[in-house]
Amino acid sequence: MARLDGNVLAGPLSAHFVGDATTAIATCTGCLDTAPLARASVEITAAGFVAHCRGCDGVILIVRDAVALDLVGVEALRISTPRQ
Amino acid sequence: MTGWTVGTVVEVRAETPTGRSIVVDVPGWRGNIAGQHLDLRLTAPDGYQASRSYSIASVGPDARIQLAVDRFPDGEVSPYLVDEVRPGDQLEVRGPLGGWFVWRPDDPRAVQLIGGGSGVVPLVAMMRSHTAAKSDAPMRLLYSVRSPEDRFFADELERAASVTFVYTRTAPAGWPGEPGRLTRQTLAESALPPGGTTFVCGPTGFVEAVATLLVEIGHDPASVKTERFGGA
Questions:
Q1: Is the confidence at residue B232, as pLDDT, over 80?
Q2: Is 0.90 exceeded by the ipTM?
Q3: I want to staple A31 with a disulfide (CB 3.0 to 4.6 A). Which of A2, A56, B80, B180 is the partner?
Q4: Best mutation target, A1, A4, A5, A13, to test chain B (most B CBs within 10 A)
């Protein structure tokens, strides 16, 4: 299927994070590319939302809304205090 | 962050042959900034659920929010929203969502908006926000559609300054040149030069092609924000 941008992760991740998680900056375990989750390349699958690294297409995370979050390919995740 | 809540449809309006705008009253809506979206969930009688994200065309604190939806032929949600939903119907929504593909009225940087089809929706929100704030930031919209009747919010965009339409299949009578896809030349003639921020929204193929062109003509990839919503 055609990929979507990581913006679509905002709702599913809201069950697992406080505030908007798509501005959180993730470092890919595979290639160390570092970018906001909003820039990830996302597939919607039966397993949930699968976010791929923009650099190497490796899987960064898989989220099932309010069920599970697997940070399988996240080397680091930096979250800033939400803007008031 | 919010969970799911129920809104009531108060108005539906045909926008294009395959699309409509929908106004939903969402009690307790805390307002949204331009570019944010909501998730909308449908539940079938057997309990099967499908949810999709839709950009919000309206901005501000009003509990009446406006969406615009284009019907995907094999869609699980869009056919219902375009063909079935009536005023009085209830919809489960979650939002506002998103902090990346957004424009805040206190941002002084020049902004180029580039939309394809229903991808114009968050960009219309940005233009409305810009107008309401009386922002001095330069802001332009390039809007690519198949034909004039495929434009969402056509009246509003025709009246707005700084909007350039690109017709890919059928152009209006008297249109200079042939219909065709957005090109480097159109960008050079009608879009702001590199240096500001660019928001591109639409089907994945459109967004990827435009983003590639932007980088080719000198835009810093970090200054280009994209919202690919799938499809072709």
A1: no
A2: yes
A3: A56
A4: A5
